[in-house]
Design brief:
alpha/beta, Aspartate Aminotransferase, domain 1, Aspartate Aminotransferase, domain 2, seven-stranded mixed sheet, 15 strands, 40% helix, 15% strand, Aminotransferase class V-fold PLP-dependent enzyme, Aminotrans_V_dom, transaminase activity, transferase, pyridoxal phosphate
Amino acid sequence: MPAFSSDQMSDIRARFAHVESCPFQGPRIFFENAGGALTLKSVVETSAMFAAIPDNQGRDNPAANALVDLINRAKKDMATFFNPDGGQFFVGESGTELTFRLIRTAVMGSDPVGAVIGSTVEHPASRSAATHWAAMAGKEYICVPHDNAAGSVSAEAYAARMSPDVRVATILHTSPVSGIANDVAAISAAIRLVAPDAYIFVDGIQHASHGHIDIGAYDIDGYVVSPYKVFSRHGYGVAWVSERMTDLPLEQLTDGPRANWEMGTRDTGAYATFSDVVNYLDWLGTHHSDSPDPRARIEAAGAAIHAHEQELAQAMLYGTGNLPGLAELPGVTILGGADNPAREGLVCFALEHIAAADIVSRLNAQCIRTHIRKADHYSGNILTPLGLGSAVRVSLCHYNSLEEVGVFLAAMKEIAA
């Protein structure tokens, strides 16, 4: 039984901007969600409203007080969405900027003698930050190899490289190249078993739009997302940090509030648009749960999103109707393998006889938006070990339909022939 009825799919799609057409290209199918998800119409409206407000927080006037209330409400909404056990949320320039900042704080503020550990599966944001600041601090960087066939890294792989002097660890929740999720809780537990006081950072940027996040279950110290990849807009990132992370020396104004991570005047519109995201997921959850608890409704929405995207991914891999799936095309390589239960709304593939760039171009000519991943500083860590110079990334989200997958497969049947 489909996770979403046809009526619910119509309601879902009606809440997003540019679902079926691009203002520059015209009608198109959007399978480039890993590059940035579609934006909620409510986010567009909220952004416009707050862009016009001249007031700042912290003044003695009604507008300033209202802005502070909106920010505090958004932080409560963030807590509902991420489900942390304490800590605090704040916004920054982008997910990448916040990744660098949290890792820098942990590496430079922790015991000066020790090591930093991360894995080869990670996005260059966390790997670059970790290797750079490990070198600046004179700490060893330990690199955990990922499983090339599975497109992921395991807790066992971390455990094999761990040592008691690890001060900082980085984990990728989901790969934006392979689309395969890693078991954050298990990896965190493996780290804590050997180095219980390590500061653990998680990159949740690719994972956030695909369902369940439960920071309280991970035993970590930092988690970062990019809201433009989870139905909001460009121009800000969201970070959560633990109390013990906040106890480290922070970059902040002299004589300012000790526990403050925020720098400069905050964009109230950024906070407010994240409330729009949480409100949308809460609405979606009401169709799958009768619970009066907002967190339970968020979890129900996440489960439905995951189920729907699994259905789409399976159809993309194994076909629908009389159309063959990608896994059935001759000379195909599916990153992470076709049968991978950890896949989250993304299929990345290559064909032996057709260049990835040509496939992306020919799909675009048929109004199907996908993206090429090249063996460069962004994706070489995943593609090069597989002997691939490039691959086609087809990234799905819960507002995509089975009918759209069928159009894509019909185009690929023609291209592959």
